[in-house]
Amino acid sequence: MIIVMSPQATREQIDNVERKLSQLGYRTHPIYGDVKTVIGAIGEKRLEDTQSILSMPGVENIVPIMKPYKLASRELKQIQTIVKVGNCRIGDSKAVVIAGPCAIESYESYVSVAKQVKESGASILRGGAYKPRTSPYSFQGLEEDGLKIMAEAREITGLPIVTEVVDTRDVELVASYCDMLQIGARNMQNFRLLREAGASGKPVLLKRGLSATIEEWLMAAEYVISSGNQNVVLCERGIRTFETATRNTLDLSAVPVVKEFSHLPIIVDPSHSTGSWKYVSALSKGAIATGADGLIIEVHPDPNCAMCDGPQSLKPNKFSVLMQELGSVAIAVGRTI
Amino acid sequence: MIIVMSPQATREQIDNVERKLSQLGYRTHPIYGDVKTVIGAIGEKRLEDTQSILSMPGVENIVPIMKPYKLASRELKQIQTIVKVGNCRIGDSKAVVIAGPCAIESYESYVSVAKQVKESGASILRGGAYKPRTSPYSFQGLEEDGLKIMAEAREITGLPIVTEVVDTRDVELVASYCDMLQIGARNMQNFRLLREAGASGKPVLLKRGLSATIEEWLMAAEYVISSGNQNVVLCERGIRTFETATRNTLDLSAVPVVKEFSHLPIIVDPSHSTGSWKYVSALSKGAIATGADGLIIEVHPDPNCAMCDGPQSLKPNKFSVLMQELGSVAIAVGRTI
Amino acid sequence: MIIVMSPQATREQIDNVERKLSQLGYRTHPIYGDVKTVIGAIGEKRLEDTQSILSMPGVENIVPIMKPYKLASRELKQIQTIVKVGNCRIGDSKAVVIAGPCAIESYESYVSVAKQVKESGASILRGGAYKPRTSPYSFQGLEEDGLKIMAEAREITGLPIVTEVVDTRDVELVASYCDMLQIGARNMQNFRLLREAGASGKPVLLKRGLSATIEEWLMAAEYVISSGNQNVVLCERGIRTFETATRNTLDLSAVPVVKEFSHLPIIVDPSHSTGSWKYVSALSKGAIATGADGLIIEVHPDPNCAMCDGPQSLKPNKFSVLMQELGSVAIAVGRTI
Amino acid sequence: MIIVMSPQATREQIDNVERKLSQLGYRTHPIYGDVKTVIGAIGEKRLEDTQSILSMPGVENIVPIMKPYKLASRELKQIQTIVKVGNCRIGDSKAVVIAGPCAIESYESYVSVAKQVKESGASILRGGAYKPRTSPYSFQGLEEDGLKIMAEAREITGLPIVTEVVDTRDVELVASYCDMLQIGARNMQNFRLLREAGASGKPVLLKRGLSATIEEWLMAAEYVISSGNQNVVLCERGIRTFETATRNTLDLSAVPVVKEFSHLPIIVDPSHSTGSWKYVSALSKGAIATGADGLIIEVHPDPNCAMCDGPQSLKPNKFSVLMQELGSVAIAVGRTI
């Protein structure tokens, strides 16, 4: 890291910072500029050190040189990670489509839509049994009953299932039913939940927080990996900006940025990010062409009767058309779907 | 709510929407404009209905008229809520100052700073025993040992204590030690934690999420209140914007906005929002003059040895000077400190 | 529009609002809810009226129902606009690629890169003669000498040219040299410049402002069109968010949103939005797959000698490869490049 | 500046960067870390160099150490600048209040409100003769007729006048009438207008752009100062965020940040930032307590007949009450009003 001293820093203050850095095990290289002095510090990066030095007299700023994440970083592991969920491989040349309704509402409707999305080419089933809802008065999910319905749909379709977990107390139960755990955007920095999900041994689908930087997102992945679980798939789902035409702003630039800095696969959620089925098709194609390793798309047989997020759900027939179109786009960028 | 039909909506689509609204128990009032038809729907607002109608053919948009929160709203309760924490009353004419270090590091340092901030006029002690840290490699807090230290500091100073809880599994334990539970910014939409905190019966200090709108924040308060606990204090702690000169952008406008729409007290955190002790004094004064019901300020005896957030911590002597200055500002706006 | 009265509004206040609306030529339809009254107002939308009513006693909020733009709107003109620039048609089935260096630096380098991008399949040449630079000490462009170089490159390549105009006093001069005027992001709400550009009669390439909503962007287009010039091409170039891994956040959702609400063509700038040539290829493909009508890409023969924005410029050989890849993506979504 | 080389950078690439830096006149200091090499470069900062080096092979990032602005910086000039407008001194111990309506609508109404705000203690009159309006169909101002009315109000009240200029072609005319030129938020990076305003010799009130960082804002001030005009007053007027309860988010942290990094005075606009008169009083007091050198407040005799921004305008009697309250707050922080 680089410590930038203020123009008014005294020689004594500079020496104190160097001494402290040495005590912390850094080798130091001061550079005396015309206006400011900067000190290069070589050694293992520890965030706490950064903070304690930043509050020393005469220190203006600290510039980290190394990324704060290690296990999630391409600096450490250059080969692309492939995460296996059932028979499905996320991060490989075949782009993976995860599909299903926002919430599980009943056995019939879920199994019906599960069959249809499988028919259209989806590789993994999604569905919410525990719903984190903005309003305490909204439908909160079928909980374990929902998990059972998902498990039956897996039996019928042969597709693996992914569902969100929202409470550390539920991790074991949810992991016993499903093939992949989803950490939702609102829980991206629920660090205890990240640790439990990591410890469960199941692959983790880690959604980006609504206002998380890519670096913070990779730090959240670091929590999961450092709990012993390398199988993390990142999911870009839109960030919060001033624009109101869409629910959030889908940040497709995150795809090549994550590819540059991390070995983890990244998929894209065009449904939650836009909040409207009208934009799902265009942005699904855009995501695959940009290089995403897959998509997670909401499909509901009857969106205007959905208990949750109907407006952003595709009908099964529209999803089927989209899957065909995605096939062409995938081929154009050297992949399959 | 108002349902806006698209310019291309057919008469049949309009009728279908009206019929559905009637089934859901709304009275409907269509207004036929030159380009678009809108339908006024009167009845109890339920968010799920909004969603299901939004996905009906011909519907362009839905405009809610009522606020989504009720129990947190001034529409329901016009009298300002006063939350009692020990002998301290938050929301009353005396502005309340909560002070202490970011993390609890040792008995000696905590008790020492606790005495000093009491001496300077603080009303409640803060301190972190469970720290939600961005990096898995950072200090995560002393946990129960930290709670014990806080409890001893309460004995010595007579001041009530507030600390953050980060996991549903810890709520009971933390509530057994402290006088007020803090829900941190990253957990503002950890709905399970909100419910547990609400159910604990302890007053709750609810920090605004990094990218939460004021409406979502009040909805989070609604979760706590609807779990049977009216004693919620809101804490503005900065929102995430493009500006990088400060860690976050302190939104002091939230103070009069919350006062308009809610009966809950609101305090301000100038330490976390700015990330630098240099700006704490100016913004503390600004917050009190704007009408905040109090402040939560980080104070550490030796910021460049702090294990967490040293750069934003005031030294006890600077805090003492600030408290005197705040006294004058409080009087200027008809309060005390 | 819908006027929402506050819960405390008196009958007299409601009557006053209705009376004022009638005076302004609106037909009114009050709906008396259990808590709030809302008034539907039918008539030609005028923004000034909105403002004056919003400040009447008892009025809580005003909800516009009609979009504020007309000439730029699909409500008025449903057929997609095709803008002709020289022989090139923007908005048609062939996606148009505009390419060239950020700034014009010399005759030799510009003509050389112009020939190369033409060879690779670009349809229009770009280049900056007037550069709006953040620092007053940065290179500000060759001005009229740059325009002359561009005009010569047009002679040599046969490709039309587009360049930015930054001052109302320069519009006539710039329009006399080039085939299309660019309004930069920083000038998107320089309304005088919009009017002059509109009055010039030349097609206008209108970049989205760094923090402009799509609605404000279409209002800026409305300024140009209302000055008598229908030939407006919108250009998405990234918006400002908290994310720092890219210079701005490219908002590809804007492509389908603009297609829904406006008849104007929309192209995408992956160079300025990301600020790094490393991400240009991925996002160019993403933009075409999402449905953009074209791209504007920076190409420089020797980026590390560029006087401006070198880091985001592709070398001509990389651009050539990208053009081939874009051809496949375009075909996959039913277009050509 | 510090050049960060990528972990894969070869020795040859590192040498090339060093050689280029030397050619550009920098002294270089390489630091070889375990994973990455960084190169410290000492010399006069030139932004163009930064850009050209950033695109060299093996370079990962460049970290500027010096601020990009000089003339606006406290590094260069440590004494607080005081800007004189008529007899009024902005930046001195007396906080300055600028007041008046958003737009000038008629002689009678303007002179009437001018007298009232003077009576209440305002020091400078504001008013818009050229209005930059989002819609081309909105009232655009009385132009020179408005300037004449303002000049007459100055004669009558003895107060200096400030008004916005929106076009380089108008600067001379506007400067011939008024005592201070305002550059609006939408024109903060209209660099030609900044230069002309600087060259006019009149003091300049420079509003912060809607999405401008504090650094970019100071760079805009640098444009004015480098045109020979030191008399720049900064005006914080809210930035664009995701929050919709207020029109923009007033960033009061900007006050102490600007005070730290610049010698220029800074005032605050609570009217445009919030968009509602209801919040003006609270935030005016907050701004003064935070250390702002003044305020600019909209006052209109009859807000619900205002042609522009009525909802955010105070009535003269409310303004009068506010001025008294501000007096107490100013005293509490060691100033007067």
Characterization of this structure:
The structure is a homotetramer of 337-residue chains. With 337 residues, chain A is α/β, with parallel strands linked by helices. Helix content of chain A is 35%, strand content 18%. The first copy, chain A, has 11 helices and 14 strands. In chain A, the strands form 3 sheets. Chain A has an 8-stranded parallel beta sheet. A 4-stranded antiparallel beta sheet of chain A has the order 2-3-1-4, with helices on one face. In chain A, helix 6 links the parallel strand 10 and strand 11. In chain A, helix 3 packs parallel to helix 4, helix 3 runs parallel beside helix 11 and helix 6 crosses helix 7. The model of chain A has no long low-confidence stretch (mean pLDDT 93). At the A-B interface, helix 2, helix 6 and helix 7 of A face helix 2, helix 6 and helix 7 of B.
Key words describing this protein structure:
homotetramer, 337 residues, alpha/beta, Alpha-Beta Plaits, TIM Barrel, 2 domains, eight-stranded parallel β-sheet, four-stranded antiparallel β-sheet, 11 helices, 14 strands, 18% strand
Note the topology.
4 copies of one chain form a homotetramer.
Chain A (H helix, E strand, L loop, with lengths): L1 E4 L5 H13 L3 E6 L4 E6 L4 H8 L4 E5 L19 E3 L2 E3 L5 E5 L6 H14 L3 E3 L17 H14 L3 E4 L6 H7 L2 E4 L7 H9 L4 E4 L6 H13 L5 E5 L17 H8 L4 E3 L1 H5 L5 H11 L3 E5 L17 H17 L5
Parallel strand pairs in A: 7-8, 7-14, 8-9, 9-10, 10-11, 11-12, 12-13
Antiparallel strand pairs in A: 1-3, 1-4, 2-3, 5-6
